[in-house]
């Protein structure tokens, strides 16, 4: 079979790839890939937002084994266009409103390119001094932007580290909290340690506990209520802790959340920290989604009381225009992390580390090796500046407010919980559904009928979301709170504009019109 790319005959192409880092070949292919990505962004709206492929589609299209001889980049890019892009759910699409976004930017993308190009493995200072020092400088910059206390910064008594994801940040802080408490009560009491969150806390906490060897039965998922916007109340926490103490257990760790995944609820940090202080507990604030908003003065109040917590993290790869992965974690006491996570071997010893005058980030994380993540964050901060970054975030909030107003203007719908940031939780109201389920007339005080009514409304909203997503025009996701099926509309993709928000609402309305017409 003849080559599809005759100007790259096998012998000629093989000679060009003999040097795997040939500068001219790198330049040629690099230009092609940058153009490919630029075209992808330019044509993003031509693709269905949610991938329409079926499980197992790709194995049927690709060869059964890897090629024995080199293939030209032209052939590879052709196959990416033909086979890979149809299987991508387009997170950067302006019509993507699902989960929490992974917002990108030119600076974030090119910072990733630089980081990958240098390809350093900065596990300790000497392995690449610039990688370490740029990270702690950038983390201090960002901590100042957020209004974190000096006690969390290297310029104070704390410090920051870039983890991969929130799951890693929670695991690191949970392990530090575990060991800190066991140093007081004895390691034989590990089975008595209790860790706390709300029923809205991210599932990463329970996963981290499993990895850390804690008893899953000792996780307290404290109930929250719609009437209090799904916040974890200090009184509920105190009551739960008292019961545990009376049972001979040891409260050790609380994960409070600023911007929960389901509804962006915000736990009251100050009042919760007052409770944890009574029991000598570690309190971590998971601000994975909404932490970035604190660079705007009007949102800083959401973390009032942060000076009383032990650690704080947010994902710059969610709503801060920095490509995945980039979770920023600050701790008041870096020594608590390094006592639990440090590793040492003869082949890692060096004069700089021995001097105790440098940061060795390998001791601040689970893994030894680490990427040069600070490069992309540094580029984002420098390329856009604080004021522009604030305005980008505010524009997303403004678009979410616009969507909220559209929902509230249609009496068939309701906003289920108050909007805090750039996400709106909504649904079609049970009273908007003409058919009375199972012939049961809904009457005031008829609890059984109301439950049936809610179940019917949940099914309707579930079908609504599935139909909307199947259209490929927009993509949203859901949650369930207090038994209510809720559609989540999260604004945050970098390319999203007002017109996309209005379009999404029209898709929802038209879909509901069609569904109601069949009832």
Automatic annotation (TrEMBL):
GO cellular component, one term: cytoplasm
GO molecular function per UniProt: carboxy-lyase activity; pyridoxal phosphate binding
SUPFAM superfamilies in alphabetical order: PLP-dependent transferases
Pfam families reported in the protein's UniProt record: Pyridoxal_deC (PF00282)
Domain of life of the organism encoding this protein: Eukaryota
Residues recorded as bearing N6-(pyridoxal phosphate)lysine in the entry: 318
Cofactor(s) named in the record: pyridoxal 5'-phosphate
Record keywords, A-Z: Decarboxylase, Lyase, Pyridoxal phosphate
Family matches, as InterPro entries: Aromatic_deC, PyrdxlP-dep_de-COase, PyrdxlP-dep_Trfase, PyrdxlP-dep_Trfase_major, PyrdxlP-dep_Trfase_small, Pyridoxal-P_BS
UniProt GO BP: amino acid metabolic process; carboxylic acid metabolic process
Membership in a protein family: Belongs to the group II decarboxylase family.
Protein's name according to its UniProt entry: Tyrosine decarboxylase
